[in-house]
Amino acid sequence: MKQFAVIGAGRFGASVAKTLSEQGCDVILIDNNAERLRALDDLVTQAIELDATDEKALAAAGIAEVDAVVLALGRRMEESILITMLLKEMGIKQVIVKATSEAHYKILTRIGADRIVFPEREMGVKVANSLINPTILDYIEVAPGYNIIETRPPEDIVGKSLEESKARSRYGVDIIALKRMKPVLDAAGDSRLEEEVTIVPHAHEVINENDTIIVIGREDLLAEFRR
């Protein structure tokens, strides 16, 4: 079972923690506000009140054992930067940090945050789903229960044409686009790789291991397709 820690129990942090818990993950939720934690205590594995700038307190909470930490501290930029540095020094495998401005983003990039998100652009649910399913590169909910995902192709369809993959008849989903890197020559005659996107690819198009596929379907059928 995957284990995650979420630091910050505001709207964004609560959304990430709730979604991870609903997907069956162990979640440690950390905040220095006892009232916020009480409201979410039943939704997570552990709700711990502590100062996340205290390295010893973080270690005692078991932070070093989790698969990833989501740092969601709202507009407390200085604390966010300090805690990011502490987490990286502690050897956390993946540190995902909420940024509040372009300046904040640049600093987080320089100190080694593995992923930086702007909540206005990326909802907590989307972040959580990408943590649970690392092969999913992007995720959009188009209607209740129906999603579009950008993902690596499952092993059992690699080397097959779209027709042979039987995505629709076997899984009930549709592959609506393919992305792949193609070598091209620039103006100087040098070779470089450029992304090629094929919308509504032909049935005889073969799916390669390094392709990215864009798939639409019901959420439960998409999950079955990725297994």
Summarize the structure in words:
- By secondary structure, the protein is an alpha/beta fold.
- 32% of the residues lie in helices and 30% in strands.
- Strands 3-2-1-4-5-6 form a six-stranded parallel sheet, sandwiched between helices. The protein has a five-stranded antiparallel sheet with strand order 7-8-11-9-10.
- Strand 4, helix 4 and strand 5 form a beta-alpha-beta unit.
- The protein is globular and about 60 Å long.
- The chain starts with a strand and ends with a helix.
- The mean pLDDT is 87.
Beta strand %: 25-35%
List unreliable stretches of 5+ residues. Answer: none
Separation, N- and C-terminal Cα atoms: 16 Å
Instruction: Kindly report the spatial arrangement of strands forming the biggest sheet.
Output: 3-2-1-4-5-6
Number of helices: 9
Following the backbone from N to C, one meets helices and strands in this order, namely EHEHEHEHEHEHEEHHEEEH
Helix content: 25-40%
Q: Assembly state here?
A: single chain
Short recap of the structure:
With 227 residues, the chain is of the alpha/beta class. It has 9 helices and 11 strands.
SSE inventory with pairings:
Elements: E1 3-7, H1 11-22, E2 26-31, H2 34-40, E3 46-49, H3 55-60, E4 68-71, H4 77-89, E5 95-98, H5 102-110, E6 115-117, H6 124-132, E7 136-143, E8 146-151, H7 162-165, H8 167-171, E9 174-185, E10 191-199, E11 212-218, H9 219-226
Parallel strand pairs: 1-2, 1-4, 2-3, 4-5, 5-6
Antiparallel strand pairs: 7-8, 8-11, 9-10, 9-11
Helix pairs in contact: 1-6
